[in-house]
Structure formats: structure tokens, C-alpha cells
Amino acid sequence: MYIPNQNAPARHRLSAKQRAKRTKQGVLLALAVISVCAIWAIWQAGQAPKETTSAEQLLQHDLKALWEWSDDQVKGGSVGASWSIRWDVTGKAGSMQDLTLQLFAEEKGEAVDKVVANEGKTVSGLVAKYGGKVSLHLIQKDNQSEQLMILLETASTASTERGSLLQKSADISSKIALISPAFTSSMKVQGYTKHDQTIQRMTRLTDAKSIDRYEDAGTISETFYTRMLHSVIPVKNGKSANFQVALHKDTDTGNTELTIGIPVITGEYSVSKAESD
């Protein structure tokens, strides 16, 4: 009769050197796994959309509204109008130098031909990736901070598309937000009126309340408040306002120039003068 061998096979015992080698291999494998996970996490973080600040969201919201309102008020629509967006921000010392490097460079990093004026306090140039003229102004500075104003201006001949304007302004906003997330912004659109009674049309379109009105021989300007905008500024008598409409008669052509600003109009009412600056 067959009787199986009850003796278990002898186990091969590893030497101390072999055990140390296996331990080292295990540690290296664990480190490799951790490194791969870390790289993947960093890549994922880079792919995640950056959370926009409230100042960035405000500008985008009001710019979309202004585009929609002006599209049927301006000859050629919003695409054929002149646009101006302004940012005001206070940052640490050296902020102007940092912004100059970021704003005056094209997609592939090529430097933009720029004009430096006012003893270095103003830098401007045509930046193709932003579709217009960019100006950077140093308003005030001390040893610790700098107050800056940034302008993006497009001409009516540029045929600016809605999505493009929103994206370009968002790109500039994201760079300014790195200096301070609490920047402020304003904007305006200019062109020639498409209809008569433009101000009345705007009032109905925006469900706005008139706050102030000015009129002389060549210009009508009216300031309003509407709940459709996020921007708001205090005005006289404890009231608030957030957009302004101006009509200006061009004596050379006989056309009526239209300017709409949020929260108010800054700069020229005249389209021809604004585009020649």
C-alpha cells in the first residue's frame, strides 16, 4: 500500500542579503507608484478649469448684456462697433512691469512693438491676440503698491466677434486677477445709430429707470439703473446707476453717434474722435 510522504518539502530560507534586496525592490516599486500618482494628480489639476473671481464674472456678465443690447441699436450690429474695456487694479510694487511682460506678447511669446511714454508710466501697442490696442497706465505708486489702469480698444473696422471679445477680455482679466482679484472694470460700445428713438428703445429693452439726463445743442446723455446688470455705482441723492447712453450729432456726416457705457461712459462721446486717438 502506498503511503504518502508526510514530510513537507523543505522551505528555502532567504539569506539576509536576499531579504534586504527584496525589501529594497519593494520600496523602489512603492516610490515609483507614488511618483506616477503625483504626476497624474498634477496633470489633473492643470486640466481643471481655474475658478474665476467675482470681478471676472461681473465683467463677463455685463459685457454679454451690452453686446446683446447694442446689436440692434448700432449700424452693422455689435460686430461692426468700436469696443473699449477698462480695468482698474491696485497691486504690489512691480505689478506694472509684470503686466507689461504678460500683456505685450503674442501667442508664441513674440514681443509686441510698443510705445513707452509719460516717463515710463504709459505703455501701449497693438496686440494681435487681443484684436486691438492695449494700453497700460501707472496712475499712482508708492514703495509698496502701484495703482494701474488697463485699456483694451478695438476699432469698428476690426469686425470683432462676440465670442472672441469675451475670450480676449477674460484672458486679460485672468492676468489682472493674479495681481488683485478685487479689480474693477467698465466698458463702452460706440457706433452710429440704426434707428430713431434709440434711448427710448434702450429703456424698454433694459427695463431701466432714468436717473439723470443732460441735453444741449449737439448731445443727449441719459444715465439709468437696471437690475439686469451686476455693475452699480452710487450717484447723487442716494441713488444708484449702472449704464449710460449718449447720442452725439456728427456735424460732418449728419449721422448720429451712439455710445453706451457700463456703469458710465468714460472718454469721448464722438466715435470719430475716439477712433483717431
Automatic annotation (TrEMBL):
Keyword list (alphabetical) reads: Membrane, Transmembrane, Transmembrane helix
Q: Name one Pfam family in it.
A: DUF1779
The reply on keyword Protease is no
| Top-level taxon of origin | Bacteria
Which SUPFAM superfamilies does the record match to this protein? YwmB-like
**InterPro entries, per database record:** DUF1779, YwmB-like_sf
Annotated TM spans: 26-43
Q: What is this protein's record name?
A: TATA-box binding protein
Q: Which organism is it from?
A: Paenibacillus endophyticus
